[in-house]
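hey so u asked for the seq, here:
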Amino acid sequence: MAEPLSITPDFVPVVPAERDDKALHRVIFIVLALAICVAPAFIYPVFLMKVLCFALFASAFNLLFGYAGLLSFGHAAFFGLASYVSAYTAKFWGITPELAILAGTAAGALLGLAFGAIAIRRQGIYFAMITLALAQMVYFFSVQRPDFTNGEDGIQAVPRGHLFGLFDLSNDMTLYWTVAAIFMGAMLLIHRFVHSPYGQVLQAVRDNERRAVSLGYRAQRYKLMAFVMSAAIASLAGATKAIVFQVATLVDVHWSMSGEPILMALVGGVGTIFGPLVGAAVMTTLQNYLVSAGSWITVIQGVIFVLCVLTFRAGIVGTIADRLKRNL
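ran it, structure tokens below
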């Protein structure tokens, strides 16, 4: 009689569905790369760069909420701080743009480590309120330190500089390819992060933390690492945005900025890799075309958001993916 198959760390069976998902994601990444290459021929590059920056911001939030189950109302702190650090170092220290973006990302990641160590001690609405309170501290710091943030005027006329001292980023197309490379690199990192053994454990903690702890996993450590990773990616988005638009203002650290990635992720699909990108494209396009509506823009956005939620319960990408799975 044959012995039953035992699964050990050296033998992990690959489920056919998982292979299919990996192949599908590979195809989607290729199509996305091709779309990014072709898009500037039809759409204004600066608008595309805005979409990519906010898609990265939404993806950072989605990484924390969709895969770790932690709802944050304070991601504007990381986005805004990185924007200020990137703009300040590029303008007043005269460093190259890649170093300015790295400086902003590092500052946001360190802030995420400090905030995460405090916030993950609580769950649910208490976690959300703590992140909001901590983000407000960053906002008030920005208001009270005009020597660093330049107050309500913000840091303007930030030089784009030369990438690696060679490529002039004052050219919109050169900057676009730089932003596209940053975006694709970050998306690949998120994909690898989510589908790694760490990401699988993180999702297990999200689904049933007590069971994960009983199996020997340190849930708090996993959540803290996810928080720091999310903060770093949000910071990367903010630092890149400051170079693209050559400005960092109090709007970047205001509490309302934390709502942007939430809306984008929900519209696109929480818990999906490409949902935040679709949500960012939809919401940014709406903001661009509804700018003439003035103060009514928030009302119109709210109505459209409600319709999207009612029509696409799992977000645009999530609903499409669910229907495709049912048909297959």
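Residues 89 and 100 are 6 Å apart (CA to CA). The two ends are 37 Å apart (CA to CA).
lmk if thats what u needed
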